Amino acid sequence: MKAISVLGSTGSIGTQTLEIVQEFPDQFRVVALTAGRNLPLLVEQIQRHSPEVVALADESLLKELEERLASLPADQQPQRQPELVGGPGGLNVAASWDTADLVVTGIVGCAGLLPTLAAIQAGKDLALANKETLIAAGPVVLPELKKSGSRLLPADSEHSAIFQCLQGTPWADNARLSTGVPTPGLRRIQLTASGGAFRDWAAADLEKASVADATSHPNWSMGRKITVDSASLMNKGLEVIEAHYLFGLDYDHIEIVIHPQSIIHSMIELADSSVLAQLGWPDMKLPILYCMSWPSRLVTPWRRLNLTEVGQLTFNEPDPAKYPCMQLAYAAGRAGGTMPAVLNAANEEAVAQFLEERIHFLDIPDLIETTCDRHQSDRIDQPQLDDVLAVDQWARIAVREQVDRGTRRLPLTAMAA
Ligand code: NAD
Ligand code: MG
Prior knowledge:
Elements: E1 2-7, H1 12-23, E2 28-35, H2 39-49, E3 53-56, H3 62-70, E4 83-86, H4 87-95, E5 102-105, H5 113-121, E6 125-128, H6 131-148, E7 152-154, H7 157-166, E8 186-193, H8 211-214, H9 224-232, H10 234-247, E9 254-258, E10 264-270, E11 275-279, H11 285-293, H12 307-310, H13 324-335, H14 339-355, H15 363-375, H16 385-404, H17 413-416
Parallel strand pairs: 1-2, 1-5, 2-3, 3-4, 5-6, 6-7, 8-9
Antiparallel strand pairs: 8-10, 10-11
Helix pairs in contact: 4-5, 5-6, 6-10, 6-14, 9-14, 10-13, 13-14, 13-15, 14-15, 14-16, 15-16
The protein binds nicotinamide-adenine-dinucleotide and magnesium ion.
């Protein structure tokens, strides 16, 4: 039985991970949960999974969590009372919990960095959903993996597809997993993108994009931040950087192709020109399950893919003018060092400002670009953890200052349209 810790258990990735645990009670048990602020759901999860430890990001809510658990009727108490911890230190305690075999990282944003590092330093294998951590801190995370021997299994659907395709190649030595060293025989990666909420919009119409428009994804049901990232294609740009760190390919050999049906989850081209793809319905449970069962595969009753039902698989090139975030991500990835951390933090802050309706959707790439430009002369090539944390903070403040100064390109009235 594999012992699982779920970081960000109340989110989209977290709840789907717990559904898998419930579906396979003989295979998996939950030992640690961490959450942000959603206490009602967290209490339900504690009742159902009886974890050994629970961490709350917001320490001030610990008392309330304790009271909610204490006030449960006797017949609804969890089988064991978990140790309750809070704040950044508490997240690290849960992430490095002794009995865990695998840590699923479902925290959103760079907030996942320190718990992820704590899990790696404790020698845990990871199912990486929290891509922002690797993007911001690839140069810090990869050496730590090497030191501890932890394996970083990709839960992001595209990277899972690549990882699954690589299982069949003679060169793919799993001991080299996520070392940032080029995978021998791997010539090219093609990441598929649904095209997000604005896939069928003309570039000119993006001026009318509202928060409601940007947060309705055609194919995937996910948290709000990643749904906006999908609409801007920043998600795919971030995934290019993620793929670079996971599989060691240079940026000239990682491509993006729009595939509206989201059936092919990504493709790899090998040295002999063979192209391998992994297919399935757009459902995150499969890539999460594969991290949990790897290197085995479990029998599932899940809906099986029927290509005649899908009918057509189509592909086209993304329009760089419509999706400037994609280019910004390539540029930051190529610059390397601390630049991806700045890109990521500027994006997190800009998306947060957009979700609060303080800026327009089209301001997002502008704010990121000016912030990355300003960082150019301060870029650190081989950053340490403190450098990453410092530029992360700097970039967030830089974006907020631009927003507060009202240097936005577009009038907010555009949002009311
Ligand atoms: P979400 O918003 O649904 O959930 C985020 C979780 O993190 C919640 O449990 C929340 O309480 C917790 N959290 C938020 N802020 C926190 C903080 N400051 N400190 C500690 N915990 C905090 O997000 P999601 O869609 O599940 O995405 C999680 C991660 O997985 C993201 O990095 C995303 O890019 C990645 N991912 C998600 C999907 C998907 O289908 N949802 C697919 C691929 C990758
Ligand atoms: Mg993805």
